[in-house]
Known about the structure:
By secondary structure, the protein is an alpha/beta fold. The chain has helices at 39-51, 114-124, 130-137, 141-149, 152-162, 165-188, 193-282, 288-358, 364-401, 417-513, 515-572, 577-675, 708-727, 745-756, 803-807; strands spanning 2-12, 15-20, 28-32, 72-80, 83-92, 97-104, 107-108, 138-140, 680-685, 691-695, 700-702, 732-737, 761-767, 778-783, 791-794. Among the domains are: 2-141 and 714-797, Rossmann fold, CATH 3.40.50; 291-573, Helix Hairpins (Orthogonal Bundle), CATH 1.10.287. β10 (691-695) and β11 (700-702) form a beta hairpin. It is flat and about 175 Å long. Belongs to the SMC family. SbcC subfamily.
Amino acid sequence: MITIESVELVNVRSIGRAVVEPLVDGGVTALNGPRGVGKSTVLIGLLYALFGTTPDGVPAQALRRQGSEGEVKIVVTFVHDGQRIVLERGLKGRNDTPYAKVTLNGVEQTVGKIRAANEWVIRRFGDLDATGFLAAFVVRQKELDALVKARAADRRALFERLAGIDRMSDAVKTARAEETTAKTTLEHLPGSAEEAAAARTDLQRAQEHAATAWKDFETASAAAGAEDQALAQATERFEDVTARVRAHQEAAQTAQQAEHHRALTAERAQHAAREVDRLTAASAGGTAEAVHAARAALTQAQQAVAENQAARATARTATAAATADARRAQQAQAAVARARTALTAARAEADKQARLAAAVPADLPQQLQAANARAGELQEQRGVLRGEYQRLEGSIKALSATVDPICPTCSTALADPHELLQTLRTALDRVREQGLTAKAQQEQAAERAQALTAQIAQAQQIQQAAEFARQQHQAALAAAQEADAAADSLQAEAEASAQGAQEAQTRAEAAVAAEGEVQAAFGAASARLRQAETAAEAAAALAPAQITAEEAQTAAAAAVTAAEQAAAQAAAAVVPDTERVQAQAVLTAASQRVQELRSAMQAAQAEHRLAEQQVKHSEMARDQAELRLKNRAAAAAEYERRTAVREALDTFRKDRIARLAPEVSEVATDLITRMTSGRYVSIELDEEFTAVVTDDTGQTRPVTWLSGGEESVVAFALRVALGELWAGQRGGLLFLDEPFTAQDVASRTAMMAAIRDLPNRQVIIINHASEATDMVDLVLNVVPDNETGARIEGASPFIEMPEAVLAGIDEDDLTPGPIASDDRSASIP
């Protein structure tokens, strides 16, 4: 059993901040308000808090009220199976990240992520998800017509969905698909007992062949081992001869290297002698005094070149500075012109705003005060007329409800109560007309006050604009004076810069005339320095070159001696060709014999390996055949299981559909009897869920023959019956979303009486007007507010009645009926 204690909404869709606290100990709560104000937001918020679902699956961020800032949250407090649960969901952080919190009897539960919270709620409700919750506890107007007017297939699908049978249908479809898949798998699986037996026979043959191949390999291995010793002796002799041949080759190579080294050292000695001769000739004129004199002359020439270049650079810099100062002076003159233009425009604007401010009437506040006072007087007059209307209406109801009315003052019977009743009704009409007149006059006074308020605001804006224009004029005047001073200063700087540039240009022209002589002197000094430095470098390298030449002569003599010794050693190490050829022939013969035996051994080994591979292949073939046989048996068992599951689900679904129509008909019959005050005594549903009603005379007729209002009552009874089947004995919440559309007062009264009789139900009704507020126990009004969002308030003692309702009242309709309590009084304009 689910009982809602409160629903708190903050910045959700059109609601700013509101708390809904329905009755929890019986009784009916109405959520009242015009269309589009946010009543359905309460139901949307309830579903989001419980299950995390949003309308049409839009992102949770779409729940935020447009233009709102701060938190977005929905907190639902309810009692389920005797335990108090608080579910809170909302958006947090700069990215409006969804979050969820669950509290059970004051202890917060660890649910982790959003999906875990959803699963916690569904488990708590006994696997009841959002769809099941809507079917069990929420009756929506848009579903009612489809229950009786939709096509047969669509109507059947709707009944199955509301009864939860569509899930069974999905399960049957899934089971049938799985059964088909299992059957297809079984049909395509290979394997048989004969195939497995043949694979085992092939394996035995392969194992016998492998054993024979292994014996041949062992025989070849023994013969090859006997020839290895002879091969080792031949190899040892050949290696000795080979080592002597290698020693002779190394000695010959050493002799060649010694001869090459001798020739190289002789060439180096000759090159060193030639280098000594060259340096001796080049060192003439390379003294330190000559190098110093050449460097001093070059330094003097470089200084003259630098002074020439500096004079020309100074002239270019002075010319550029003079040009920049002249440009800034021109810009300053342009700024002066703009400042004077702005000063003229600011003076004209200040004069214009001053004239507008002088034209504003001075008595606007007094006119506004008089208009507000008049509106207050008319408001008080409307209040007096409203009280008079209520008293007259109460008197008329009291006279109409009494057979022999008496005078309330002297307690005697009235002589002519009908005449008194007519007098009261005439007075009621007069009060109504006076109320309408007072309302029109009050609205005119309010409009007058509003117009004066706008004029005062406009006058204030004009005065502010005049002051702003005066300040702008003063600022423009100061800017013009400042621009004049800056222009004069920049003009003086430009004239001084021009004079300095002229002087620098004169010096640059003199430097250009002397440039040829300076460059010639610089070139001659550079050539003289290079010649002196080259001679000095040759004089410094002469002594080391002489030492190198002497060392090269000594090395050449040593190389001659070493070459002669190496040639003698190479001649002594020569090996005869016959000895080498004989050792090679013996080794070759032994190698051939061993190679032949090893080839035989390898062939036997290869044959054994092939046999082993054949054994492995046969083992794999046997295992695969046995596996295919095992898989086929498992697939057959799976097919049988899937078939049994599909048949069981299908049988259960058909049985549930067969029992649904009678069960719904039974509950709906009891409801329709009470909702129509016995006019219709039963509702029957056929296999296609087409409704047929029976009236109190025993006549049956299809529901499509009924009037629109009666048809809606039948649909409402069927929908509530489906919800009762879902809820069972648990009862709890019953949310009715605008259920009384197009119903008259009598039908609404009967339907509400039937709803009240439902056991263990907490009824909450959404109304788009006040048509059912006289039959409920608590009225909550949804009040729109464009700035802070809609809010929810308890019903006020005075509710404005539309003019169209008052204008359409017929005196003959003023029959005795229940008198409204103080907190739901009737009203007049």
